[in-house]
TrEMBL record:
PANTHER family, per the entry: MAGNESIUM-CHELATASE SUBUNIT CHLD, MOXR FAMILY PROTEIN
Every AAA+ ATPase domain range: 47-162
Annotated organism of origin: Sporosarcina jeotgali
Protein name: AAA family ATPase
InterPro entries: AAA+_ATPase, ATPase_dyneun-rel_AAA, CbbQ/NirQ/NorQ/GpvN, P-loop_NTPase
Amino acid sequence: MNQLIEQIQASRLNRTYSEEEHLLIQEGGYVSPTRNLFDDILIAISLKKPVLLKGPSGSGKTRLAQSISALFQQPMQSVNCSVDLDAEALLGFKTIVTKEGQSVIEFIDGPVVTAMKRGHILYIDEINMAKPETLPILHSLLDHRRMLTNPFTGEVIVAHEDFSVISAINEGYIGTSPMNEALKNRFVSFSIPYLEAAQLRKVLEDAVPEAEASVVDTIMNLSGDLSKQAANGLLADEAASVRSLIDALQLAVHMPVNRAVMYAIAELLEDKMERDLVNELTATWVK
């Protein structure tokens, strides 16, 4: 492991977290599709660079962030972006509480403010799903200043030295929009591809150890077909996602493979032609 990563890991492992914070430390398990990808991302995180993970649905972006949390034993605050995301969802909100018999207004920190103050990892999922006007509030947080002024309280918040930011995007999906250049330029960007066949098989076997080898073989064969059709533009990327394949394999332990694939993969697709194609591909491998 890179010496810089080891130094950062050692410093963070020595930190003391509350019982509540320990519940926010994720499990690992990410398998890197290339030799250096995971270590290179860790180096960027160690240098306090905001990291942007780009890749198709199910390629392991969230699992990668969780694995960094596990490696550094560092709690993770998550933001799931949508068109409804607003400043309150990011920073927090004011509420009325009772203290010593008096009603007082108190500010409840949101995930961004909590991560900044406590030195947690901030994971922003599907950042290109958010409305462009929502995210500029994060600009000063993502550059060399590593601070922001809370518009709800006027508080100037300087990020804890361990604070890290990881964002993820699914490029080209319905409902997404190109990232604003001013926002994108604040990140170091990494492409996260799907796993190679041998790596995928190990992930499937580790995730569903009770599955028979013949069933794993069938899912692997189907995965190859799904990936080819997705590459040719005939299927949505999520049809070949690792997440969907694991779901299908887990179901296939308890039911026929064709039904497992139908429920875990085909029925999630909106286009009927795509659903039919998945079922047809499955039928070629299920006798």
